[in-house]
Amino acid sequence: MNSINQLNQLKADAVKNFEVTDGYRIVVGMATCGISAGAKPVLEKLKEETAAKGLGDVQIVPTGCVGMCIYEPIVEVYEPGKEKVTYIHMDPDRVTRVVSEHLVKGKPVVEFTLGETEDGKLKSLDDVQFYKKQKRVVLKNCGLINPENIDDYIAIDGYQALAKVVTAMKPNEVIDLIKASGLRGRGGAGFPTGTKWSFAAANEADQKYIICNADEGDPGAFMDRSILEGDPHSVLEAMAIGGYAIGATKGFIYVRAEYPVAVRRLEIAIQQAKEKGFLGKNIFGSGFDFDIEIRLGAGAFVCGEETALIASIEGKRGMSRNKPPFPANKGLWGKPTIINNVETLANVPKIVLNGPEWFKSMGTEKSPGTKVFALGGKINNTGLVEVPMGITLREVIYDIGEGCPNGKAFKAVQTGGPSGGCITTADLDTPIDFDTLVAIGSMMGSGGMIVIDEDNCMVDIARFFLDFTVDESCGKCTPCREGTKRMLEILDKITQGKGTMEDLINLEELAENIKNTSLCALGQTAPNPVLSTMKHFRDEYEAHVVDKRCPASICRALLSYFITEDCTGCTRCVRVCPTKAITGTVKQRHTIDQEKCIKCGACMDACTFKAIIRK
Amino acid sequence: MQNDCGCNCNRTSDKRYAELKAYIDSVKDSQGISMGVLQEAQRIFGYLPLDVLKFISENIGVPIAELYGVATFYSQFSITPQGKHHIGVCLGTACYVRGAQKVLDKIVEELNIGVGETTPDGLFTIDATRCLGCCGLAPVMMIDDDVYGKLDNVDVIPAILDKYRGEVAQNE
Amino acid sequence: MSNVEKVNVTINGIAVSVPKDYTVLLAAKAAGIDIPTLCYLKDINEIAACRVCVVEVDINGVPMRNLPASCVLQVQEGMNVRTNTEKVRKAVRKNVELILANHNRECLTCRRNGTCELQKLCEELSIDDVPYDGAKRTPVLDDLSHSIVRDSSKCILCGRCISVCKNVQGIGVLDFTKRGFNTEVAPAYDFSMRDVNCVYCGQCINACPVAALREKTSIEKVWEALDDPEKFVVVQTAPAVRAALGEAFGLPVGTPVTGKMVAALRRLGFDKVFDTNFSADLTILEEGTELLTRLKEGGTLPLITSCSPGWIRFCEINYPDFLDNLSTCKSPQQMFGALVKSYYANKAGIDPKKMVCVSVMPCTAKKTEAQRPEMEVDGIRDVDIVLTTRELADMIKQARINFLALEDEDDDSILGKYTGAGVIFGTTGGVTEAALRTIADIVTGEDLQEIEYYDVRGMEGIKEATVTLPIDGKPTEIKVAVAHTTANAAKVLDAIRRGEKNYHFIEVMACPGGCVHGGGQPHVSAKARLEVNPKADRANALYSEDERQVLRKAHENPEVKALYEEFLSTPNSHVAHKYLHTHYQKKEVYCPQE
Ligand SMILES: Cc1cc2nc3c(=O)[nH]c(=O)nc-3n(C[C@H](O)[C@H](O)[C@H](O)COP(=O)(O)O)c2cc1C
Ligand code: SF4
Ligand code: SF4
Ligand code: SF4
Ligand code: SF4
Ligand code: SF4
Ligand code: SF4
Ligand code: SF4
Ligand code: SF4
Ligand code: FES
Ligand code: FES
Ligand code: FES
Ligand code: FES
User: Fold this and answer.
1) Which residue of chain A comes nearest to C48, CA vs CA?
2) What is the rounded distance in angstroms from the CA atom of residue A235 to the CA atom of residue A244?
3) Which residues contact C347 (CB under 8 A, 6 or more apart)?
4) DSSP β-bridge partners for residue C476
5) Residue ranges of the domains in chain C?
6) Helix (H) or strand (E) holding C435
7) What is the DSSP letter of C329?
8) Distances in whole angstroms, Cα of residue C119 to Cα of each of C48, C110, C124, C521
9) What's the gap in Å between the CA of A314 and the closest CA on chain B?
């Protein structure tokens, strides 16, 4: 790749292919979630059927995450001059009908679509409530382009930003531009990206590195994966731009091995970018060299932490080290290193092309732009949502997510994953950005957003997160290694009905100490879920400790099983009870001896008359 | 056959060592290759036994204790043989709040082994994994490459397991 | 020092101006303020893991987030540090409590009772309760090797042993394994230290703040022998022991205590008190002759010293291609044992089978060396029991001897006399200097007066020197290298393998500084190491002993001369080979034992 002209030439060709001028372009959502839901056989069947029907001019394109998990597998059909048709919940049988009715006869199969709008048009995803308040910037290309074909990316202005930067801008101008945009890191801490770059740029060194943090360890978050699976080139392009800005010629993508699809697409993307000359030597004839290598994580949440990540790339145990020195001064192999999150990077080419003002036109003053959240848990519409910063949680949960399933009452939403906290109804109207979330006792984190309803026990939820951090602590420093374990033991005690009020004080003291003295942010934030649930749901804690009762009926040891009047005396439960706790005469109501019952729940599962309840 | 050292590993006859050596040679000039080599070794051998770590240590000059430290740090590596089928129950947050613990408990009960353990017949290994990336299907589990979602009713689990048991019976 | 850039910081209200590369810990020390530490070991382990050194800091009025660890926090202009606030006190106490909650807290029956850094810290903090009684790590007690016991129930995961073994020694026997609460420090696959690449140098023991790593003690065996009227128990003391034994009785690091040591050994009941310095002198004659012969007759060069068993094992495991370069001389400890049970036994008319040869060594590797199958002559073991300096101090305490009040005494004859050459064996460069003193005299036929070889002294890791000596009448340049720590030895050998370097003679000591800092020497706490340098201070004690000697060349030792006249005839003679020389074998490690 020697010049922008050459790129524009490529683009002109690519656009012809991308914008369907004749025949159909059929897009199949093939991110991990689509594949899990069965997209592969759908794609195969499409190929098979169209070939069988002799439909030569059909393009069948695997694409990334469309965003709406509940409708997967999703297939969208584009036709020149017509509205696209979105098919949901596809399977091979449905494909057969779609091919013969829609593709051959030109009549969309309405029953497989989202239905019709009031004015009789077919609904597209954009008509769905889920998408109405979203603003797709980072995820724009996901679900649109074929991530395994660089031409698709080029067709939609791919690598234009890189071309502009290396041919027309000085490194410090790039940094100033990013600074001006106000872009803040999407990996958790929200540190201003331009400022971070300027630190590394200021260091003289024979070698510098830029690392893309694609470890995405927050259990319940998958936005980075979706970007990598749906739009890998945007990340490569951004890394090259960042490399140019700070003076790095080498980049690493540290991606979890648990993301095989993302890894494969990245490999393909890097290969294609090298072939086209967007990576390698003398990019756009500018004299700038840049290369990217993929390194795989191996299952350690702490490796998302910068210094642990560096240790891991160096081939060591992913144990964090003290900061300072910060990686921007002393990072990978002791060289100045910048680490950026996938989503942060994915914003960069767009900012370069559209300008900082465009970026600042979205979001809030201190947190411009959009943020992708992985909305999950007890929510009707699970999936990835990209919204402008400053939207309220209420809008996300009720307008986009459409509330909790089965009419259950919303209790809280956990943001920031194991480092964050829960937010209750009281704060649902807070406009969310990096700073407001911290102010209400949680944090942005990487963007996991887990909705919790009345059926969840908050003590149990706190225990869940702590169990996670205990498991994932690197084990280096005392407070985190030993302290979180002691906290977990106390929570175990409480959920087993053996807690005391003193335990609550102990929990708080431990939490305080772990926050204050842990070496890295994993430990420093590990107590947050406990502290925030203790703050907002103290009554639930006290119910466990004082009344020996679990209000949500989750904590087994605190539950009792009872047989109601609905009992028909079928004796089924008697047969399954391991402790012979149930007695009764045939065809009469049975009873459970609470002394003997070990709360295994077997009887409840066995009773076909729903006559056994737990409380 | 015994080696000079008196142990019984069969490095010369076992082609997998040559495969691993070829990989090591291909990355030898890069920095920080331990993880990649261990990942490759885990892929080739299925786990990381002593002989393999010794072999790697000799070939890349990293102390065996350090390699072992790495191998036991990351949950992806295993130093004991793994079952033929790998069951990963997602305990990611989205799955957890939707009852993934029950799924895990059911599997533990069905197979009568603990999490991280392998059944005596070598058929299954159970692991609790983090988000598998299909939270929309929560609660989710994976057996090998197959995803099973919406496992709200755990009663379907024995039948799922039987499929994998049956497969073996057929093969044998 | 004046050209070092300084910064101004305030610590607990005290203003100090310190070099800009200081940590807050060092700056506090300069201000006379003591901050507790556990994982920190100057220049060796600076991983900031234990979090007991945390402090409250603000920089020009802006508070730092959380409580940073002072052991790694670099000072900065305008820093205001507080080490004694309620927040800090609570945090330090809590972290110590958390360590204790996962610790086998049986101080009264613990090897480190009294020298333990954790115990001391608990005392200083007046810890009177451990408010947690939850899970503990599964304890592992490995006492299969002859030298080292690993007791994970005492380990506080400070990583000091790992750093010393991996970074100082270049070996890496121990590492962190697993993670989180399950983290342990162990060899791979939890192998016993017996079966791994450990060379038993004991540097990890020296580094360990607690009793998780300790020598395998032999004190009871020695008492048994002493109490047995049938046994004739002799003792030898290595050169470096006298430079450090006094520390166990409160004397400053680097105080030589030869005379008191001898007196104490007599009071303990040893039948004869001899000195390994004697056989160190002897080693010079044997090894010097070996070198001259190889030089003249074209034997394998460089000749590499063999007196450090840590080094020998390292070579056998990692550099088997250099085994022919090793001097065939046994170490002074073993030479002594072989002679005491032959030459001496014969002269004194004692049945060697009834003799027990005890040696007191600065060294844990010597315990394993004494048990090597090669180390016997005609079925009689050279050395029966090896004690470390620490164990000897313990025996003296057990016997309730008032060590400091003892009058100096002299060793027994005839294996007790030594020259200054033998004394300096205990420090890096000492063997080389001693050898050069003798070789130079032999080849020139003169009694040279310039006997101090400063090039090979000091604590630099690898020292080189070239000496021109007339060999067969021709002035010949003899190139020597002196390496201490196994890591440095490896560097020298690697350079030779690559053909970059060439020497005639190489001295290797496995321990940093040589035996003065051997793995059996009294513990010097991390805190004390901020003030003293045990390697250099103890080495100086030996050099001063050397200077006090009338005889300072090995070949002038009258008892050694007599030994050759009466028993060995000449160096490297047939008899000498039988008793004083040995051979080496490639060693395999990490092989599962049936
Ligand atoms: C325990 C822990 C886990 C983290 N995991 C991730 C992660 O999975 N992905 C990520 O991008 N950042 C993660 N971070 C944040 C990173 O350390 C780092 O701040 C971020 O990658 C910087 O990129 P940004 O400035 O673009 O946000 C984690 C931090 C901690 C302390
Ligand atoms: S806080 Fe936890 S994860 Fe971080 S260094 Fe300490 S032990 Fe490791
Ligand atoms: S919960 Fe279990 S123990 Fe209790 S009555 Fe039901 S079956 Fe019996
Ligand atoms: S199984 Fe249900 S209906 Fe039957 S006896 Fe038991 S409680 Fe009654
Ligand atoms: S190691 Fe120290 S604190 Fe632990 S038992 Fe021994 S003396 Fe006490
Ligand atoms: S200090 Fe306390 S525990 Fe120790 S011996 Fe004295 S009384 Fe007993
Ligand atoms: S004795 Fe020496 S070689 Fe062995 S573990 Fe300790 S430091 Fe390492
Ligand atoms: S063995 Fe000793 S030095 Fe090593 S980590 Fe444990 S306590 Fe620290
Ligand atoms: S240097 Fe001395 S103390 Fe160290 S291993 Fe060698 S002989 Fe023993
Ligand atoms: S639709 Fe993409 S992750 Fe579900
Ligand atoms: S802790 Fe579980 S419901 Fe209470
Ligand atoms: S939390 Fe289970 S798949 Fe995401
Ligand atoms: S953290 Fe500073 S001494 Fe351990």
Assistant:
1) A322
2) 14
3) C414
4) C469
5) 6-97, 102-215, 220-580
6) helix C430-444
7) B
8) 20, 10, 9, 20
9) 4
Q: Do residues C518 and C147 make contact, with C-beta atoms less than 8 angstroms apart?
A: no
Q: For residue C252, what is the DSSP state? A: P
Instruction: Report the alpha-carbon distance of residue A265 to residue A491 in Å, rounded.
Output: 42
Q: Cα–Cα distance between A512 and A534 in angstroms, integer?
A: 13
Distance C94 CA to ligand 6 centre (A): 22
Ligand 5 pocket test, pick from C106, C109, C112 with the greatest ligand atom count within 8 Å of Cβ, gives C112
Q: Which residue has the tokens 């539950």?
A: A559
In the block, residue with structure tokens 């000072």 = C75
The rounded distance, in Å, linking the Cα atoms of A295 and C157 is: 29
* A534, A504 contact by CB (below 8 A): yes
Q: How far apart are CA C84 and CA C73, in angstroms?
A: 17
Nearest atom of ligand 8 to the alpha carbon of C162: 4
Q: What does DSSP assign to residue A597?
A: -
Judge: domain C102-215, CATH 3.10.450.350: no
Q: Report which protein residue has its CA nearest ligand 7's atom 8.
A: C165
How far does CA C482 lie from the centroid of its chain? 17
Give the tokens for residue A270: 């890097």
* DSSP calls for A537-599: -HHHHHHHHTS---TTS--GGG--EEE-TT-----HHHHH-TT--EE--TTS--EE-TTT---
**Look-up of token digits 């990890």:** C204
Which tokens sit at C350?
Answer: 């004692």
Task: Compute the distance between CA of residue B12 and CA of residue A302 in angstroms, rounded to an integer.
Answer: 38
Structure tokens at A240: 């090259």
Q: Which is the catalytic residue, given C155, C158, C198, C307? A: C307
Pairing of strands C79-82, C462-471: unpaired
Separation CA C218–CA B127 (nearest Å): 47
Mean of all residue pLDDT scores within chain C: 96
Chains that touch A (3 or more CB pairs under 8 A): B, C
- C220-580 maps to which CATH number? 3.40.50.1780
> How far apart are the C-alpha atoms of C388 and C253, rounded to whole Å?
17
- The reply to whether ligand 7 has any atom less than 6 angstroms from the CB of C510 is no
Residue A352 CB less than 6 A away from ligand 2: no
Tell me the two tokens of residue A295: 């390194």
Q: How far is CA A19 from the centre of its chain?
A: 30
Cα–chain center distance at B21 = 21
- What pLDDT shows up at residue C524? 97
Edge-to-edge strand list for the sheet holding C148-151: C141-142, C148-151, C213-215
Q: For residue B69, which residues of chain C lie inside 8 Å, CB to CB?
A: 175-177, 188
Assign 3-state DSSP to chain A and report helix, strand, coil percentages, each to 5.
45, 15, 40
Inter-residue contact C567 to C579 (CB < 8 Å): no
Confirm or reject: Cβ of A518 under 6 Å from ligand 2: yes
* Three-state secondary structure call for residue B88: strand
Two tokens, residue A462: 């706190």
Residue A125 half-sphere exposure, CB side, CA atoms within 13 Å? Answer: 25
* Mean pLDDT estimate for chain A: 94
Q: Is the CB of C386 under 6 A from ligand 9?
A: no
Q: Which is it for strands C184-186 and C175-177: parallel, antiparallel or unpaired?
A: antiparallel
- A404-446 pLDDT, tens digit per residue, is 999 999 999 999 999 999 999 999 999 999 999 999 989 998 8
Q: Confirm if C232 and C340 have CB atoms less than 8 A apart.
A: no
Q: Is B12 exposed, middle or buried (0-12, 13-18, 19+ CB in 10 A)?
A: exposed
Q: What is the pLDDT of residues A195-241, one digit of tens each?
A: 999 999 999 999 999 999 999 988 888 899 999 999 999 999 999 99
Which residues numbered 392-431 in A keep a CB inside 8 Å of some CB on B?
Answer: 414, 417
Domain at C6-97, CATH from 3.40.190.10, 3.10.20.740, 3.40.50.1820, 2.60.40.10: 3.10.20.740
d(CA A64, CA A33): 10
Quote the distance between the C-alpha of residue C440 and its chain's center: 29
Summarize the confidence of residues C450-476 as an average pLDDT.
93
